[in-house]
Amino acid sequence: MAGARCRAVLAVGVVTCGLGVAAWLGRCPALRRIARRAAAVIMALAGPLVFRLGYSLYARTRLGFLFYKRQVKKARERFPHGHSVSQPLGFRGVKIVPIPVLSNNYSYLVIDTDSGHAAVVDPSDPLAVQAAIEEEGVMLEAILCTHKHWDHSGGNAALLQQHGSCKVYGSAADAIPELTHPVGDREKLSVGCLTFEALATPGHTVGHTAFVLDAGPFGGPPCLFSGDLLFLAGCGRLFEGSPETMLASLDAAVGLGEDTLLWPGHEYALECLSFARLLELDNPALEQKLLWATQQRQEKRSTCPSTLGEERTYNPFLRTHRRELQEALGLQQGSGEHHDAFRARVLREVRRRKDLYKATS
């Protein structure tokens, strides 16, 4: 107990000190970068208590909202035209418009081109989303919110004010701002002639929900809007779930089929692929994707979408069943250990290493 109390005091001290020097650091970009890296290393190494305190402040207090507002302001100044150049994708009667927001997030405007009705996924910056709505000349019918974190839900209220008949879909298990229509696992919803299916994918948050567009009637493959469940070569941190929970969510996503297009919530391709390369040194698919992504990012081009079939060849979080990854991690299945329990242990280790890699890179 004494150790726990000391860690609690240390955690509060770190947070208080951080708040006290924030303004001073803001005057020096170099010091600010150093401070961010130091804070990330502390969060990764100081143990679960400090990590949980920081997360609770972000997710459950007004400090999180104020941090989000600062993110929006800084991103608009730094990336007046968005952090990436995105290419809309169209099928017969469907158009998907990626909207680069904040410093690395994506929102997506999904349009039924026949009716002019549209849904937006995770509207982080309402101004950027509204600009896309006006440019496309569509009527916003729905907001599909994958989870409660402000960088995915922060624009809900502002858009709802502008589009009074708009519905906000998401999980009731997450405290999603302005939620009007809670959805459960495998529940379907319609926007114009488009049909989406909600897919419960807890792990990152307790109520995280991905949305799957059925593009079959329009001659296209399924489209997975994965939020922070799955990225190109990565997956979300386990803020509110266990490795076992995240493994089940990833398996549910992979079950959608190899041709499914993956539209992730962040532009993390280079970071995730570079990390994956440390685990699998002799993976031709990984090497090829890393070269491609490097070229894309040098030109500030988006790396979205990939496919689930591609992801299975290089994404370590989807390769927990592969012997080469298990051996690279130095893990072996225990006698009598269930295969899925072993895979969850592999996932835990990959996630642990990824957290440390992000903190020190």
Automatic annotation (TrEMBL):
<keyword id="KW-1133">Transmembrane helix</keyword>
<dbReference type="GO" id="GO:0005739">
    <property type="term" value="C:mitochondrion"/>
</dbReference>
<keyword id="KW-0812">Transmembrane</keyword>
<protein>
    <submittedName>
        <fullName>PNKD metallo-beta-lactamase domain containing</fullName>
    </submittedName>
</protein>
<keyword id="KW-0378">Hydrolase</keyword>
<dbReference type="InterPro" id="IPR032282">
    <property type="entry name" value="HAGH_C"/>
</dbReference>
<keyword id="KW-0862">Zinc</keyword>
<dbReference type="GO" id="GO:0004416">
    <property type="term" value="F:hydroxyacylglutathione hydrolase activity"/>
</dbReference>
<keyword id="KW-0479">Metal-binding</keyword>
<feature type="transmembrane region" description="Helical">
    <location>
        <begin position="38"/>
        <end position="58"/>
    </location>
</feature>
<dbReference type="InterPro" id="IPR017782">
    <property type="entry name" value="Hydroxyacylglutathione_Hdrlase"/>
</dbReference>
<feature type="transmembrane region" description="Helical">
    <location>
        <begin position="6"/>
        <end position="26"/>
    </location>
</feature>
<dbReference type="GO" id="GO:0019243">
    <property type="term" value="P:methylglyoxal catabolic process to D-lactate via S-lactoyl-glutathione"/>
</dbReference>
<dbReference type="GO" id="GO:0046872">
    <property type="term" value="F:metal ion binding"/>
</dbReference>
<dbReference type="Pfam" id="PF16123">
    <property type="entry name" value="HAGH_C"/>
</dbReference>
<feature type="domain" description="Metallo-beta-lactamase">
    <location>
        <begin position="104"/>
        <end position="266"/>
    </location>
</feature>
<dbReference type="InterPro" id="IPR001279">
    <property type="entry name" value="Metallo-B-lactamas"/>
</dbReference>
<dbReference type="InterPro" id="IPR035680">
    <property type="entry name" value="Clx_II_MBL"/>
</dbReference>
<dbReference type="Pfam" id="PF00753">
    <property type="entry name" value="Lactamase_B"/>
</dbReference>
<keyword id="KW-0472">Membrane</keyword>
<comment type="similarity">
    <text>Belongs to the metallo-beta-lactamase superfamily. Glyoxalase II family.</text>
</comment>
<dbReference type="InterPro" id="IPR036866">
    <property type="entry name" value="RibonucZ/Hydroxyglut_hydro"/>
</dbReference>
